[in-house]
Amino acid sequence: MRLARFPRRRYTPAPTPLEKLPRLSAHLGVEVWIKRDDLIGLAMGGNKTRKLEFLVADALAQGADTLVTVGAPQSNHCRLTLAAAAKEGLKCCLVLEERVRGSYDRNASGNNFLFGLIGVESVNVVPGGADLNDAMMSLADDLISQGRKPYLIPGGGSNPLGALGYVVCAGEIVQQSLDLHVAFDHIALASGSTGTHAGLLVGLEAAHAGVPVIGINVSRPRAAQEANVFKLVSETADFLGVPQPERSKVTALDDWVGPGYSLPTPEMIEAVKLFARLEGVLLDPVYTGKAAAGLIGMARRGDFKSGDKILFLHTGGAPALFAYQSTFRE
Ligand SMILES: *Cc1c(COP(=O)(O)O)cnc(C)c1O
Question: Which DSSP string corresponds to 19-40?
Fold first, then answer.
């Protein structure tokens, strides 16, 4: 695998904490542990930081002066790409896809507020369903015509290079599980643009970890999401030259998506409140809230065996809570 051959910037000095959630475990009747990637480096953390360690290193190696990327109006990925650009002395231009019409408001709180604060160069809003690559390419063409050197990062940083961030995380989890002497029976996480899910599967396979991964969808139906994850799994395994996990190892459940991407559900609201009130852990309304709703729902419907140890991957996102205050007010 030789991961060390890839250029990498380091945005976090140490492995993220992996700890037990005793009060939540008692409440649910299964043992729940948490991997705190919400406590990772760059502005307010989250999973995109790990992908950006490889993507930004590649941008710098290519002599780029501007990062261009795309996301939803409350995109954590856009905030963290912007923060990485600031740290590296690069410019950053964003394309925002309004998956929900009229949802971008430059004066909104949460990540929208942070885009301005961290110093985004430009924000182009395109309608939901627009060709996002096209939108990034035409922005890049403008920059090139001004003598600039843009580097394009796909939505969520989810390509084989970005997925390496979660191949690294898989190794970290395997080491921590050994150090803590806890053999996890499942790892649960939110599955979105797929880089996190795919990287984790490839990394766990390469380590012969034998821990099944449960993806919980935040937008797509199960079959579509599993196909997307498996595609990136194959590309990432090829890119690294490691054996490819079997298709049967890709699970992406769609029972907790609700009405659609970023739209609240009662189960998400309950999950966010449970984690906050039992453990002082802040989830987010779009990804980890729905993933935790899945974990809680599975525990309640008896999907886990007694004594099972579940590791919940906290992928960040809490800054978006501030754009959803009315959703949580009682
Ligand atoms: C982007 C994101 C995810 C999903 O990760 P993907 O790699 O896009 O599947 C999960 N949680 C949070 C908080 C995110 O911002």
Answer: EE-HHHHHHHTSEEEEEEGGGS
